Amino acid sequence: MSPDPEPVRPRAALSAIWEVCTIPFAMDETAARLQVCSGTVSRTYSLALCVAGALALCASLPQLETAQAAAPAPPLLDVQQLKPGDKGYGLTVFSGTEPERFDVEVIGVLTNFLPHQDLILVKTNHPRLQVAKVVAGMSGSPVFIHGKMVGAYAYGWQFGEESVAGVTPIGAMLDELRRPIPPEAIQPLPSSPPARARKPTAGIQMPAGHKFAGNPMSYSLEGHARQLAALTASPGSDHTLRPTPVVTPLMVGGLNDASLSVLSQHLSPLGLEPVQAGGAGRAEADAPSRFVDGGAIGVQLIAGDISAAGIGTVTRVEGNRLVAFGHPMMNSGVSRLPTAISRIHWILASKMRSFKIGSPIRPVGSLINDRQAAIVVDSTVEAPVIPLDLDIRGVQGAPHTRWTMQLAQERFMAPLLLAVALGNAIDSTTSERRDVSWHAHTTLRVRGHGEITLHDYGVAVGGTPDAGTFFRSRAVTAMGSLLSNPWQPVVIDSIRSRVDIRFARDLLELRGAVPIDTEVEAGRKARIRLQLVPYEGPPEFRTVEVAIPRELAGNTVEIEFTPGHQEAPPVAIPENITELLSVLPRQAYPPDSLVGGVRVGGHGVAFRGQVATRLPPGALDTLRPLSSTIAPEPVPSYARTLIPLGKFVIGSTTVRVRVRDVLR
Fold first, then answer.
1. Residue extents of the structural domains in the chain
2. Class level of CATH domain 79-177
3. Which residues contact 478 (CB under 8 A, 6 or more apart)?
């Protein structure tokens, strides 16, 4: 076989153009000296020829490089043509970036192993595979029989004693490559929200990933994780007795042990196995610039001071697109996650599951489809990311108090990684095993809708808050609600978070309350003396005032004191993204406050983003339409007084006061 021709390099070609362009001028000078050719050699004519030739050569350069880049795709072999004993080879990266061969022998074919998808069983042979057996990260390695591509290394058994793997047929993978992708899924994200008259999803790509199944106001990251695990896992099955997709090793850097444990707990059920192996460094100047069959590929979920990338192998490149893995990553369907060319450092052998250790070295393209047989990547599509800037204050002498990261804009991963990033950064920066009180003010900038700021506050006893603490934070919950909202796509342009740390247990326990005035005039304020016990020091007594509505005249009322973080103010159920953004910061009272509440008879109403907590008698019936089922929603009628305390409060209590009529 003759070697491939040396590609034309742009710099060398331009040098050649310059040399050609100087020839006519040299000829003119020589002709002038010899007084020959002066009538036939014109500077203008020579210059025109030079420019025309240069333009023609320059125009040919892209075609030359494109032709060299787009090498002929290898021929295909149908699974029906295979028979036991057929031998061939596979391609994968054992170290570095260049694919190497390993030997393959066909054992047989499991027909209809998955819906309309066969599985080819093969034995593999290579010095590393004799030790490592089945390797996580080899998913997608192309397999060739008789010089033709037959499929991708994709399945295996845990604790296997033999180098036996399952191969996904290439036909099933190419079906996914050719599956139409909605145009809005790969076009640039909008710089402004769609017009009100336009359909909410017209021309705009939804965030990647599975949406939370539930009301956005009830979003829970833990609940979202359980929903995804139920979709992915096979309850009651023994994974040691059947071939399963070779897990995708998630190369993680920048996390401590506690944060890695939290991440593993929530990603392992999805087929992603976090491996603490260092993160992505700076892009390598000499890194390959395009994907190749058998090359290493990474799907980047977070980059920066914390990084996580799922490592696999490219199966087949066709034009600007490719298929890889031979099984789903998260089975998310149409997606848009950042991808990168990767370097493999080593294959680590393990009795349970061997895996590749690698890292992304050059960002290229985006994962655009995640299906049963393969992931599909387009090297011309750019995936959206969310810049995260985290500033930790109050820790004197800490070497790293500023953290910057970029999160993939994925419905589940973005809230999960925000929680992990916050907990990991605080834990790593403080690195203390004493009581810590913290305030976190997190601002989400939502494209076309401005900013919302969420306040979280807590006390960590005997150590700093970990990633799990932030699963229930208002910032993470708000982000999940926005990305899973049912109305229209949301683009989060940036996240800024400032965390203030204080090494103390700023905690107050509400032990009791005594009314200073046992009787109060309707419409006035009742004075109550609270007993608050700090963690250290003597009890504190504070006198607070709680408003008493006029309509309670002549009654004995109960005043309930509850911590602000346990009390939800009345809000209307949002009906669009604007109302959701308005409601999210008001879902609870400040966490360092106390709320004094008085139950008022009757009901209030919530309707179209507005709340009326108290209505005159009969008003609710008047507001209820006669010919429509769309009506205001009744809400309990309370009169609440917010009492700022500046410390986290636990405990609740109730006092009674008599409300007398106004005598005037």
1. 10-69, 79-177, 386-502, 510-660
2. mainly beta
3. 444, 452, 454, 584, 585
